[in-house]
Automatic annotation (TrEMBL):
<dbReference type="Pfam" id="PF00528">
    <property type="entry name" value="BPD_transp_1"/>
</dbReference>
<keyword id="KW-1133">Transmembrane helix</keyword>
<feature type="transmembrane region" description="Helical">
    <location>
        <begin position="102"/>
        <end position="124"/>
    </location>
</feature>
<feature type="transmembrane region" description="Helical">
    <location>
        <begin position="198"/>
        <end position="221"/>
    </location>
</feature>
<dbReference type="InterPro" id="IPR000515">
    <property type="entry name" value="MetI-like"/>
</dbReference>
<protein>
    <submittedName>
        <fullName>ABC transporter permease</fullName>
    </submittedName>
</protein>
<dbReference type="InterPro" id="IPR045621">
    <property type="entry name" value="BPD_transp_1_N"/>
</dbReference>
<feature type="domain" description="ABC transmembrane type-1">
    <location>
        <begin position="96"/>
        <end position="325"/>
    </location>
</feature>
<keyword id="KW-0472">Membrane</keyword>
<feature type="transmembrane region" description="Helical">
    <location>
        <begin position="302"/>
        <end position="328"/>
    </location>
</feature>
<dbReference type="Pfam" id="PF19300">
    <property type="entry name" value="BPD_transp_1_N"/>
</dbReference>
<keyword id="KW-0813">Transport</keyword>
<dbReference type="InterPro" id="IPR035906">
    <property type="entry name" value="MetI-like_sf"/>
</dbReference>
<dbReference type="GO" id="GO:0005886">
    <property type="term" value="C:plasma membrane"/>
</dbReference>
<feature type="transmembrane region" description="Helical">
    <location>
        <begin position="261"/>
        <end position="282"/>
    </location>
</feature>
<feature type="transmembrane region" description="Helical">
    <location>
        <begin position="136"/>
        <end position="163"/>
    </location>
</feature>
<dbReference type="GO" id="GO:0055085">
    <property type="term" value="P:transmembrane transport"/>
</dbReference>
Length: 335
C-alpha cells in the first residue's frame, strides 16, 4: 500500500510541477520589466537589442517560448543564466547543497530544542517550570526568523564577536572538496578543523531558522503527549508505579511522534523557503541568497530554475513525510 501511495504521489508531483512551471513562466513574462534592458549597454542600437532578445529566445510568442523551454527542460537543459552567464543547472547544483545543509541542520536543532521543551513541559506540568517553558516557547514563536538573524548579528557578531558574520567557510582556508556538501564531507574525511570552521559559519543562521520551528514542534508535541498521558494504558502503567519520566519517554512519546512528524514536515518546507532572507542577511552562498539576486536582475532562466527546485523540494519532503507517518501508523499503512 505504501508503494502504491508513493507512485500515486509521484504522478501527482509531476502534474504539480508542470503547473508550477506554467504559472512561473507566464507570470515572469507579464510582470513589468525587461531583462534585456538591464543587460544592454547605454547607447545600444535597436539591432543589438533585437539580437540579444533573439539569443535568449525572448523575441518569440510566450506560447512558443514555453514549449521550447519545456522541451529543453525535459532534456536536462535549464537554460543559461542572464546575469551570471552560466548554465542554470550547474549554478543550482553548486548552491543547493549549501541550502540543504543549512535547512537540515536547522531542522535537527529545532527538533532537539522543541522536543526537549515539550517533554520537560509534560513531565513538569502544573508547576512553575511548565509556565516558564511555555513563556519561552511563546517568545520563540512570536519572533520571525529574520529578526532572530538580525539579533544574532548584533549580539554574537558585533557586540560579542563569537561567530563569523558571513560566508560559508573561511576564505583563507585552501581546502579542496570533492562535493558541495562541505559540512558532511569535512566530517566524513576527518578534517575536523575545517568542519569546525564551517560549523561556526552555520551557527547563527541555523539558530535563526530553528527557533521559530522549535516553538511549533514544542506546542504540537506537548499537546500530543498531554493527550496520550490520559489514555488507559498510561493510567495502568502509573498504577504499576512507573515514574512520570518513564511514562513520557517509554509509553507516550512513540504515540505522539506521528502528528509531530506530519506538521514538522510541512513546516520544513516553509523553513527551506525561509532561507531566502536569512541567507541574504548572513551572505550565505545558498540558493536562497541567489534567488534575491535573480529577481533583482530579472534573470528569467535562473528564476524559473529556482522555482522548480523549490517546488520539487516541497513535493519530495511532503511525500517523505506522508510515507513516514504511514510507516509509523499501522492503520494508515494497511488502510
Amino acid at each position: 500500500m505504501i508503494l502504491v501511495a508513493a507512485l500515486r504521489r509521484l504522478a501527482t508531483a509531476v502534474a504539480t510541477l508542470f503547473g508550477v512551471a506554467v504559472v512561473v513562466f507566464v507570470l515572469l513574462r507579464v510582470v513589468p520589466g525587461d531583462p534585456v534592458a538591464m543587460m544592454i549597454a547605454p547607447g545600444a542600437s535597436p539591432a543589438d537589442i533585437a539580437a540579444l532578445r533573439a539569443r535568449y529566445g525572448l523575441d518569440a510568442p510566450i506560447f512558443t517560448q514555453f514549449w521550447i523551454w519545456l522541451g529543453d527542460l525535459l532534456h536536462g537543459d535549464f537554460g543559461t543564466s542572464i546575469s551570471l552567464k552560466l548554465n542554470v543547472l550547474d549554478v543550482l547544483a553548486e548552491r543547493l547543497p549549501a541550502t540543504l545543509e543549512l535547512a537540515i541542520a536547522a531542522l535537527v536543532v529545532a527538533l532537539a530544542i522543541g522536543g526537549a521543551i515539550a517533554i520537560f513541559g509534560v513531565i513538569l506540568r502544573r508547576t512553575l517550570a511548565e509556565s516558564l517553558l511555555d513563556a519561552v516557547d511563546g517568545f520563540m514563536l512570536a519572533i520571525p526568523d529574520f529578526v532572530w538573524a538580525l539579533a544574532f548579528v548584533l549580539l554574537l557578531g558585533v557586540l560579542w564577536p563569537v561567530f563569523p558574520l558571513s560566508g560559508r567557510i573561511d576564505p583563507t582556508l585552501t581546502v579542496a572538496f570533492a562535493t558541495r556538501f562541505y559540512l558532511i564531507e569535512s566530517l566524513v574525511t576527518g578534517r575536523f578543523a575545517v568542519f569546525a570552521d564551517i560549523l561556526s559559519h552555520m551557527v547563527m543562521p541555523t539558530l535563526a531558522l530553528a527557533l521559530p520551528l522549535a516553538a511549533i514542534v514544542a506546542r504540537v508535541l506537548k499537546q500530543a503527549l498531554a493527550e496520550a498521558m490520559v489514555q488507559d494504558y498510561v493510567l495502568l502503567a502509573r498504577l504499576k508505579g512507573m515514574s512520570e519520566t518513564r511514562l513520557v519517554l517509554q509509553e507516550t512519546l512513540r504515540n505522539a511522534v506521528g502528528p509531530t512528524l506530519a506538521l514538522t514536515g510541512v513546516q520544513f518546507t516553509f523553513l527551506i523557503g525561509g532561507t531566502v532572507i536569512v541567507e541574504r542577511i548572513f551572505a550565505y552562498p545558498g540558493i536562497g541568497n541567489m534567488a534575491i539576486d535573480a529577481v533583482i536582475n530579472r534573470d528569467l532562466p535562473l528564476i524559473q530554475g529556482l522555482v522548480l527546485v523549490f517546488g520539487a523540494l516541497f513535493i519530495l519532503v511532503n511525500i517523505a513525510v506522508d510515507l513516514g507517518v504511514a510507516a509509523l501508523n499501522p492503520r494508515l499503512r494497511h488502510g
